[in-house]
Design brief:
By secondary structure, the protein is of the alpha/beta class. Helices cover 44% and strands 14% of the residues.
């Protein structure tokens, strides 16, 4: 466990714990307010993220930014990270051993940020954070409390690009998050 951001990020950027490290251009560590009450966790970087070293800057990120704007969420005021910090080939889902190799980095980020609410974007984030028994279709839109943090599972923005009918549910889930933020 690292007690400061610099050591954690340096360790992560030099990581070779799994095969994803061999093909990366950049480690995609995280971005945003390191003291945010609201954190978003996705699955892993895509091609744009790998090139820029910043999470959610590709097509899915642009869609998420539009949702943020529509809801009055300032991207710089939240913290955004992923389960894995290196891009899986062809944007496939991270394999279990790859996710396991990165989870301590993510847990350390959560400990340092101390968010009140974490939005889990998609099934990879949901299953790696809350447990393999969860499925995104049954868990999305429902609050889960664990270790003093409220979790809201919802669809990954990339899923919205493939199925536009999920946009309304995603929007509703984020509105629930905003309402809960006002309460706490």
């Amino acid at each position: 466990m690292f007690n400061n951001w610099e050591e954690l990020e340096e360790e992560c950027k030099n990581c070779t714990k799994c095969k994803l490290s061999k093909a990366r251009n950049n480690v995609v560590f995280g971005t945003g307010n390191k003291k945010a009450d609201l954190m978003f966790i996705g699955e892993g970087p895509g091609a744009d993220e790998d090139m820029q070293g910043i999470p959610f800057v590709g097509r899915a990120g642009k869609l998420m930014n539009m949702a943020f704007k529509g809801l009055g969420i300032n991207r710089e005021e939240v913290y955004i990270a992923n389960v894995v910090k290196c891009r899986p080939p062809n944007n496939r889902n991270p394999e279990d051993d790859e996710a396991s190799a990165c989870l301590d980095y993510l847990r350390n980020q959560v400990i340092l940020v101390k968010p009140k609410i974490i939005v889990l974007l998609g099934s990879v984030a949901l299953r790696n954070i809350l447990g393999k028994e969860y499925s995104i279709t049954s868990a999305r839109g429902k609050w889960v409390e664990k270790n003093g943090i409220l979790y809201m599972p919802t669809f990954h923005p990339a899923a919205l690009l493939r199925d536009e009918s999920k946009k309304i549910l995603f929007w509703r889930d984020l509105k629930l998050v905003l309402n809960k933020m006002k309460e706490i």
